[in-house]
Amino acid sequence: MTTRTNDEPALGRRSFLRGAAFLAAAAPILTEAQLAHAAAQTPAPPSGMALHGQSPNAPPPGMTLINANENPLGPSKAACDAIARVAPLGGRYDLNGETDLLARAFAAQNGLKVENVAVYAGSSEPLHYSVLAFTSPTKSFVTADPSYEAGMFAAKTSQAKIVKVPLSADCAHDVKAMVAADPQAGVIYICNPNNPTGTLTTKQDIVWALENKPAGSILLVDEAYIHLTEAQDTLDLVAAGKDLIVLRTFSKIYGMAGIRCGFAVARPDLLAKLAPFGQNAMPITGSAAARASLEDASLIPERRKLIGDTRRDTLAWLKANNYKVIGDPQTNCFMIDTGRNGKAVFAAMKAKNVLIGRTWPIWPNAVRVSVGTPEEMAKFKVAFKTVMDSPPMALEDHTQLAQLDYFATL
To answer: Cis peptide before 268, with omega less than 30 degrees from 0?
Structure first.
């Protein structure tokens, strides 16, 4: 028998929880992995075709995967050791308080209070919930174009108007145009560095947007790729109590895309508005691996240099061969203006066993490429030159074009 130990009516509590659960269930949370998979999806092979336990939807063995902005280096040794240490405790939810230890470690490293930090299984959940919490049919979602699309899907769920503002001439966020775009904005989303262009928006511009945004709105600053650059972050603005939520993930430089961990960082009252949408308990393996990654002082500079060197080498090769790179990419992805149908280039590259990233409606001739290992980028160079040396092709698989055109509805 269950006994109530407070005066709160059970019906009210249950109604609230049902309402929050309904909102969350009605709002599909899209991730980079899902968006990349949707762009690359092909019909599944007949049943029985999967080999050695591999899903029939998995890419073929040997395919070069530079389509989802993943880190091919994977988790660090310290993270793997931490997973091995806590895995035997996996029969308990969080026996050692791994998630709390992680939040405290991050707060201490960044001059924050622990109540400024909410831990999630990646940054997709807090991105989605932030949009649901602060937009509505009367409060719009303002985003750069092109930029990461997941927030727009959340805005469609909250029935908010989506306002897309083209990037500036140097492919940064045009913050003055974004702030002026709608006086009834609920969320102004700044992905910095930007996905898909890999370009930076200055801290000065972000501060200007914060100081001049419409009253009652928030900035949602997505810093998924910030560690891949030398740019200043915005966590000090959270410490100062400003109207922003900063998102962080361990999927990029930390190489934990398949392990899942991330943060929403903000004032406690802003984080409280995300809470009704709920979240599952963090896996202790993700929390332990994330804390070990934070405490590995050499990890960020070493990986930043390795990925940066590979990016610079690839960009130099592209420019030497007169291919047009868009903007000045500073992270682990970049866009190429191919001068032809980008979806056709995507399909032709896939036929060469190299899976690159998707297109964006505003730039139909551009494709995004993630930075892989030097060996993977060498394969990219060979395949890309072969494709671009061929006459512009018409895509034979119109099914794939239809799948990709789904994103044009945003």
So the answer is: no
Residue 347 near residue 400, CB atoms below 8 Å: yes
How far apart, in whole angstroms, are the C-alpha atoms of residue 3 and residue 281?
24
Tell me the sheet residues that pair with 335: 368
Length of the chain: 410
Angle at which helix 342-351 crosses helix 374-389, to 10 degrees, equals 120
Q: Is 124 exposed, middle or buried (0-12, 13-18, 19+ CB in 10 A)?
A: buried
Residue 221 near residue 206, CB atoms below 8 Å: yes
Distance (Å, whole) CA 135 – CA 187: 6
**Which residue has tokens 């769920």?**
157
3-state helix, strand, coil in the chain (%, to 5): 45, 15, 45
Query: Residue 396: which pLDDT band, with cuts at 50, 70 and 90?
Result: very low
Q: d(Cα 161, Cα 167) in Å, to the nearest integer? A: 19
Least confident of 54-63, 65-74, 122-131, 390-399: 390-399
Question: 362 Cβ partners below 8 Å, 6+ apart?
Answer: 145, 146, 164, 166
Residues facing residue 144 across a β-bridge:
165
pLDDT at 117 over 60: yes
CA distances from 261 to 125, 257, 293, 389 (A): 10, 8, 11, 42
The 10 Å Cβ neighbour count of residue 105 is 17
Distance CA 143, CA 190 (A): 7
Q: What is the pLDDT of residues 265-289, one digit of tens each?
A: 999 999 999 999 988 889 999 999 9
Residue 58 CA neighbour count, 13 Å, CB half: 11
- CA 371 vs CA 65, 75, 82, 196, 310: distances in Å: 10, 16, 27, 12, 7
pLDDT digits (tens, 9 = 90+) for 327-385: 999 999 999 999 999 999 999 999 999 999 999 999 999 999 999 999 999 999 999 99
Nearest Cα residue to 123 out of 201, 241, 229, 29: 29
Residue 64's beta-bridge partner residues? 354
Q: What is the DSSP string of 155-218?
A: HHHTTPPEEEEE--TTSS--HHHHHHS-TTEEEEEEESS-TTT-----HHHHHHHHHHSPTT-E
Neighbours of 108 (CB within 10 A): 12
Name the pTM for this structure: 0.89
CA atoms of 159 and 337, how far apart (whole Å): 33
